[in-house]
Amino acid sequence: xxxxxxxxxxxxxxxxxxxxxxxxxxxxxxxxxxxxxxxxxxxxxxxxxxxxxxxxxxxxxxxxxxxxxxxxxxxxxxxxxxxxxxxxxxxxxxxxxxxxxxxxxxxxxxxxxxxxxxxxxxxxxxxxxxxxxxxxxxxxxxxxxxxxxxxxxxxxxxxxxxxxxxxxxxxxxxxxxxxxxxxxxxxxxxxxxxxxxxxxxxxxxxxxxxxxxxxxxxxxxxxxxxxxxxxxxxxxxxxxxxxxxxxxxxxxxxxxxxxxxxxxxxxxxxxxxxxxxxxxxxxxxxxxxxxxxxxxxxxxxxxxxxxxxxxxxxxxxxxxxxxxxxxxxxxxxxxxxx
Amino acid sequence: xxxxxxxxxxxxxxxxxxxxxxxxxxxxxxxxxxxxxxxxxxxxxxxxxxxxxxxxxxxxxxxxxxxxxxxxxxxxxxxxxxxxxxxxxxxxxxxxxxxxxxxxxxxxxxxxxxxxxxxxxxxxxxxxxxxxxxxxxxxxxxxxxxxxxxxxxxxxxxxxxxxxxxxxxxxxxxxxxxxxxxxxxxxxxxxxxxxxxxxxxxxxxxxxxxxxxxxxxxxxxxxxxxxxxxxxxxxxxxxxxxxxxxxxxxxxxxxxxxxxxxxxxxxxxxxxxxxxxxxxxxxxxxxxxxxxxxxxxxxxxxxxxxxxxxxxxxxxxxxxxxxxxxxxxxxxxxxxxxxxxxxxxxxxxxxxxxxxxxxxxxxxxxxxxxxxxxxxxxxxxxxxxxxxxxxxxxxxxxxxxxxxxxxxxxxxxxxxxxxxxxxxxxxxxxxxxxxxxxxxxxxxxxxxxxxxxxxxxxxxxxxxxxxxxxxxxxxxxxxxxxxxxxxxxxxxxxxxxxxxxxxxxxxxxxxxxxxxxxxxxxxxxxxxxxxxxxxxxxxxxxxxxxxxxxxxxxxxxxxxxxxxxxxxxxxxxxxxxxxxxxxxxxxxxxxxxxxxxxxxxxxxxxxxxxxxxxxxxxxxxxxxxxxxxxxxxxxxxxxxxxxxxx
Lengths: 338, 646
Ligand SMILES: Nc1ncnc2c1ncn2[C@@H]1O[C@H](COP(=O)(O)OP(=O)(O)O)[C@@H](O)[C@H]1O
Ligand code: SF4
Ligand code: SF4
Ligand SMILES: [Mg+2]
Fold this sequence. Notes:
The structure holds two protein chains of two kinds. Chain A is an alpha/beta fold. Chain A is built from twelve helices and twelve strands. In chain A, a hairpin with a 2-residue loop joins strand 9 and strand 10. The longest helix of chain A is centred in the middle third of the chain and has 18 residues, at 189-206. Chain A starts with 11 loop residues before the first strand and ends in a 17-residue tail after the last strand. Mean pLDDT of chain A is 89; it is low at 1-5. By secondary structure, chain B is an alpha/beta fold. Chain B folds into three domains: 20-43 and 69-277, MetI-like fold (Orthogonal Bundle); 295-526, P-loop containing nucleotide triphosphate hydrolases (Rossmann fold); 539-626, no CATH class. Chain B is elongated and about 110 Å long. The two termini of chain B are 13 Å apart.
């Protein structure tokens, strides 16, 4: 599924990323929001990033975008180290690396016309006046909005249309990497489908690489090629999206895939029985033992080793899994339906 | 929401649309212009004495009378305005010139930088400002401008305290992050995005501080630290007048009125800038239209029919219809899903059952028969007896149901004592029991918590426990899991299912997620543009949909079966739900329907469908005969230019 060509550097390369919020001694005591995360995204490839809220998905996106400085680790964009890029370097990077946020209501300045918002971004790279206007209109049309949108204010658009504007804002600089932080989570199902189709079209058309952050595995399965499952800032499992969703090898991935409800009642009855048989504990707020597996307090397979020793990512089949007992998953556990 | 936003873009600024704003701005501008030009048009020089005409009242010669040495009060009052109006403006500029950069830096950097600036501001604020001002005058003399600049420095610390919160919340807007991702520098981000979004609070504070400055300057003048004779100042003129209060009480009027009006004008401007408070106006519930239910409807159905809704319409008073003529039944112990895109009237339908419609929205016709009683449009005093006790509600945002100021214990025990008439200890015992019933293991600890200490899933559990305090027979759950993670959502759905089995209550679940409906509901009603377009059992409707809208919703769901391949494209529905008041004749879905034909544009009746359900599509029979399927749109269809209204 991955189409990495060895000679080309990945669009994004992240190694051992650690992000802590705040400074001082107190911050060192709380576990970091992102804890030793590694991944690559090839040009034109979509990497899904899933996990429950607070697992550090958005923080990884912010670190890539330079909105939150990494505590440790390195980020390369097209083979160039951008971990500590200065503002000036960021400005050139900004044309290659763009973002779409979750909340279409907060991501557009309500006091500015759509045209002004797009032009502001273009002015930073020296495109002004009629040229900027023409480019703004072309971009808006490419996301399915009429050209007179540039004269309107955000309040005159629906949620789905605003998300299209946010996508246009990202595309107007002709980037090749997009960070999509839950771009469809706030939308209705039908609008969500429109935006997902649009994102798929744009990716294929412009060979865009996506870091696609989501908490819904169904959505990730539609758009992503590969997926990284995150829990409390750590990678639990990663691999081709088909493999991870249809044959998860980490107990947490099993719980995640089982939890998503499908709109087919007969199938959903089986899935529910399957999920309830997993007996995965519910999320607790207690911090995990830093020595052991972060999932140990909820994991039905946890044993002494799990509490004492943090599992490293290992290659099993096509996936990388951080679990001491990954070999049992899908074999002796979960219990077969009866 | 949108009307408020749009109002902002009208020509006349909002603050000039109130009398206070017009008076405030008008008077300040008038006084400012009048006083700085006074030297060219005043009838007398400010120092010109007419010893024969001392302490006079208004006359044709001296319009506002004269003072103790026969100087013209009219000329003096207007001339005196120039100094305070300008010096106070300088003070405001200094205060904001120092304060705003500190506020913006602190809000941007946070952490230690913010802490340090905050401590600096605290220190300045703890200094006694009167003493400092007098000391400054002692050191540099009666020079008003430098003294007011020092005062501006002191004020900047107070501004910091007031505005830092505003600045920080303004930085939370994602468009700030988006601008930074664009590569915009810090100063530009602040000037282009942060400051404009703080404009209103800044303007309000500026007007307030300006009024304070006016008072301080004139207060100092009253104490003798003014511009010095013969230069006039309101403060000193008031002092002069109070010395002559028995000889000529009139003398107090011109400077007193000028000063009061000017200070009032600045304050009125501040009020007008602040705009109406964020509290919605209370409109007392109107006398509801009495709606008669025909007895035939009451006796209809089986004995375990809990709720029967017939031809229910909900309208905005004097405005469009939001829900038009919907009917459905709910049996005891049954879970029904109400699905559809947002804007289809799901929440309005659910709220009308509780008598909890927003102000100005009401049930206009139809009946809601609850346990054999007509409850549509019940007066508030009767509705309140049903709400919470017989019909309870949970919503998408559990935090809305929970009061941040009270512990979980007091929020649960209060309704328990009211609904069940039990004592304090008994209420506490039941509260613990309810928390355990909603799956909270450490109930004792949670009982002591405040809402902000709970995670989203935990808060929703507590909100459900709260809904259970009145032992309701019907629970209305409006998108109860939309804001939650899938794993937590699954737990809450299991909990709801267990509660239905245990207590035998019915649930009306509003959701846009067909997966959630498939998981928990027995029956389903699909809504579009204020109508039910398809109804039946969940198994029938979702496995074999009749109505094109239901087909489309299913096609838009990306959750394919585990072994099925992911579709190349999802079956999106082009366009969007038409807003109320803009519904087309005939089928309201026609604009977006792949099967729309000429017969769809005339009104038609629902067709029976499924075992005891319905489908509101005139082509139902034909579509089923031909086995029509909603097709995913072709590649690039989303790129077609849309012209729909929001
Ligand atoms: N600005 C911030 N300051 C302090 N902590 C934060 C901040 N933003 C996020 N966090 C914390 O970092 C962790 C990861 O958060 P986030 O990256 O937003 O997760 P996700 O996007 O997966 O929901 C959470 O524990 C969250 O509370
Ligand atoms: S390492 Fe142990 S606790 Fe962690 S997921 Fe695997 S089995 Fe569970
Ligand atoms: S009535 Fe016509 S337009 Fe409406 S859903 Fe049926 S086929 Fe489509
Ligand atoms: Mg997030």
